[in-house]
Design goal:
A five-stranded parallel sheet has the order 6-5-4-10-11, with helices on both faces. It contains 19 helices and 14 strands.
C-alpha cells in the first residue's frame, strides 16, 4: 500500500463517519497528507485529520479520532490504528500491504513518481538568458542546473512545460561586443565598456578567417559584420556549452524579433487599452506603482527611444498570447529589483500576478578548491565559465551539487569535496547506492537467481525493509511538492535519505544465498523485488536532476 492509497483510505473513512453522523461533507478536504513519525514506535504513518476537522463539526477531536479509527481498522492492509494525544491517528500497515509497494514500483518503472498534480497547466520556464556577449559563467551555471531540473520535475507532475532562453540580441551591449571584436581583429585596445578576454580574440580571428580583409574595411562597414557574426558565433558556443551540460531549450527567443515583428507596439497598445499608459515630460510611461512597483516605468523616452522595460513588457505579453498560463522567470541575485516591476507588468496587462507570473531569485555561487577561490578564467577574463566547471568536476557532480541547495541561499562548492569518491560527497553517496544495487543484481544473474514474476510481499517484514518501503512510498509526494514549490533540492535531499535507507537495509538484510546463513528462495525473491524497486526510484530521482545512474563506480 502506498502512502497515497493510505491517504485515500483515511479520507474515505472520514466520508463514512460524516455520513453516519449526518455531518457537513463540505468541510472535508479534497486530499489528506500523511506524515512519517520520527519515532517508529508511533507507527508507520500519522494523520492530524481529526484535529483539523473537529472545530468545524463541533466534536471533540478524540471522539472524532475514535470514530475514524474504527472505520480505518476495517480497511484491508491496515494492521492497527492508535489514538495519541489530543487526537492524532497513528497507523500501522500489514507487512503484506506494505511490501506490495515493491511490486507497484517495479511495474511502474520510469513512470513511478509521476503524477497529474499540475495537469492542465501550461508553463513557460525561462532561465539562464545570458547575454550573447561572453561564455556561460558560474552564476548562469547554477540556474542551468536548477532550471533544467525544475523543467523535468514540473513535467513529471503533469505540467506542459516549455523551456526558454531569452537572447538579449538588441541594444548597446551587442554594439559594444561588435566594437570589441573589431578592435581585437585590428590589434587595438579594448574600447571603453567593451569586452575583454581570450574568447574575444578567438572569435575575432574566426570572423577574419571567414572574411579576409574585413578588419581593413572602414568601421561603418566592418562593425555590423563583426557584431552580427560575432553574436551568432557566441550564441553557438553558448548552446554547445549548455547541451554538454545536459540542458536543452525548447525555444531560443530573440529580443530582436519583438521589435521586427511589431510585438512591442502591440504590447504598448494593449497596455494603453488597459488604462495604465500615460504621457508625461515628452515620454510614455507605464503606471506600475498602482501594482507595487517603487516607481512608474518609462516605455518610450522623450527622444523616441524604446527602453528595455518596453521589451520586457512585450516579452511577457507575447508569452501569455502564446498560450502559457504561468510565466516563470529564474533570475540572478542582481535582478532582485525586477520582481515588483515584472509583477506590475502582469497586473497592467490584466493578469493575476499571484498566478500568471512567478519570479525566482537565485543567490550567488562560488567555486573553491580546499577553501581557496579558483583562479579567474584566462579565456573569459574575469569569470569562471560553465565549461571550466564541467572540466573540473564533471557534469554529474556539478548538476547535483548546484541543484541540492535552496536557491535562496548563497552557495560555495569545493572542487575537492564534490569530486571525492567517499560517502561525505552527496552525489557519490547516491550514485554509489545505485551502483551497489546494480552490482548485486549482476551477482544474482551470475548465480542464476531470478526475482521471478511474483513474490510474497508479506515476507518483507524486517525493520530495515519496512523503513526502505516507507522511503520508496514517499517519492511521488516529494516530486509533486518539489514541483509545486519550485524546489528541485527536495529531490536531492530525498535521494540522500533513500540511499541511506538502502545502505542500512543492505547491511542488515542478506539478499543472495552467499557467505552468511542461507536465505530461503522465497525471501530472496521478495528482497530482489525490493532491491529492484529501490534501483528504479534512485534512477528516476537522479534523472529528474539530469544526473546519471551509474551501473558501477
Amino acid at each position: 500500500m502506498t502512502p497515497a492509497n493510505l491517504a485515500d483510505a483515511v479520507l474515505a473513512a472520514a466520508h463514512a463517519v460524516f455520513t453516519q453522523r449526518g455531518l457537513d461533507h463540505s468541510v472535508l478536504p479534497e486530499s489528506v497528507t500523511l506524515e512519517r513519525p520520527r519515532n517508529p514506535e508511533h507507527g508507520d504513518y500519522a494523520s492530524t485529520i481529526a484535529l483539523q476537522l473537529s472545530k468545524r463539526v463541533g466534536l471533540p477531536p478524540r471522539e472524532l479520532a475514535t470514530a475514524l479509527a474504527g472505520e480505518l481498522a476495517r480497511t484491508p492492509g491496515v494492521k492497527s490504528v492508535e489514538i495519541a494525544g489530543p487526537g492524532f491517528l497513528n497507523l500501522r500497515l500489514d507487512p503484506a500491504a506494505a511490501g506490495q509497494l515493491a511490486r507497484e514500483v517495479v511495474q511502474a518503472g520510469q513512470a513511478y513518481g509521476r503524477s497529474d498534480r499540475l495537469a492542465g497547466q501550461r508553463v513557460n520556464l525561462e532561465f539562464v538568458s545570458a547575454n550573447p556577449t561572453g561564455p556561460i559563467h558560474l552564476g548562469h551555471t547554477r540556474w542551468a542546473a536548477v532550471g533544467d531540473s525544475l523543467r523535468r520535475i514540473l513535467t513529471a507532475a503533469g505540467a506542459e512545460v516549455t523551456s526558454e532562453h531569452y537572447v538579449n540580441d538588441a541594444g548597446a551591449q551587442i554594439d559594444r561586443f561588435g566594437q570589441s571584436l573589431y578592435a581585437a581583429a585590428k590589434g587595438e585596445p579594448t574600447p571603453a565598456e567593451g569586452y575583454s578576454g581570450e574568447y574575444v580574440t578567438e572569435i575575432a580571428q574566426r570572423i577574419v578567417t571567414e572574411r579576409p580583409g574585413l578588419a581593413d574595411l572602414p568601421a561603418e562597414e566592418a562593425l555590423p559584420i563583426f557584431r552580427d557574426r560575432g553574436y551568432q558565433l557566441m550564441l553557438d558556443e553558448m548552446r554547445a556549452s549548455l547541451e554538454r551540460f545536459g540542458v536543452h531549450f525548447d525555444v531560443w527567443f530573440s529580443e530582436r524579433t519583438l521589435h521586427s515583428s511589431g510585438a512591442v507596439e502591440h504590447a504598448l497598445r494593449r497596455l494603453r487599452e488597459q488604462g495604465h499608459v500615460y504621457d508625461a515630460d515628452g515620454a510614455i510611461w507605464l503606471r506600475t506603482t498602482d501594482f507595487g512597483d517603487d516607481k512608474d516605468r518609462v516605455l518610450i523616452r522623450s527622444n523616441g527611444e524604446l527602453t528595455y522595460f518596453a521589451a520586457d513588457s512585450a516579452y511577457y505579453i507575447d508569452k501569455r498570447e502564446r498560450g502559457f498560463d504561468k510565466c516563470v522567470y529564474l533570475l540572478g541575485a542582481d535582478h532582485h529589483g525586477y520582481v515588483n516591476r515584472l509583477r506590475a507588468i502582469a497586473a497592467c496587462a490584466g493578469d493575476d500576478p499571484d498566478f500568471n507570473i512567478e519570479i525566482l531569485i537565485g543567490q550567488l555561487v562560488n567555486l573553491v578548491r580546499d577553501g581557496v577561490p579558483v583562479r579567474l578564467s584566462k579565456r573569459a577574463g574575469n569569470i569562471v565559465t560553465l565549461d571550466e566547471v564541467v572540466d573540473a568536476v564533471g557534469v554529474d557532480a556539478a548538476r547535483y551539487s548546484l541543484a541540492r541547495s535552496s536557491t535562496d541561499s548563497p552557495l560555495t562548492l569545493d572542487i575537492e569535496v564534490i569530486t571525492r569518491n567517499s560517502n561525505d560527497n552527496p552525489v557519490h553517496y547516491v550514485q554509489y547506492a545505485h551502483a551497489r544495487i546494480a552490482s548485486l543484481l549482476r551477482r544474482a544473474a551470475d548465480l542464476g537467481v531470478d526475482r521471478g514474476d511474483d513474490f510474497d510481499p508479506g515476507l518483507l517484514s524486517h525493520e530495515r525493509e519496512n523503513d526502505l518501503l516507507k522511503s520508496l512510498g514517499e517519492f511521488p509526494g516529494v516530486v509533486a511538492t518539489a514541483a509545486e514549490l519550485r524546489e528541485p533540492h527536495r529531490i536531492a535531499r530525498y535521494l540522500e535519505e533513500l540511499a541511506g535507507s538502502y545502505h542500512r537495509f543492505n547491511d542488515a538484510c542478506q539478499v543472495l544465498p552467499l557467505g552468511r546463513q542461507p536465505v530461503p528462495a522465497e525471501l530472496t525473491r521478495a528482497r530482489l523485488w525490493l532491491v529492484e524497486a529501490t534501483r528504479t526510484v534512485l534512477a528516476n530521482g537522479l534523472a529528474l536532476l539530469g544526473v546519471s545512474a551509474p551501473e558501477q563506480m
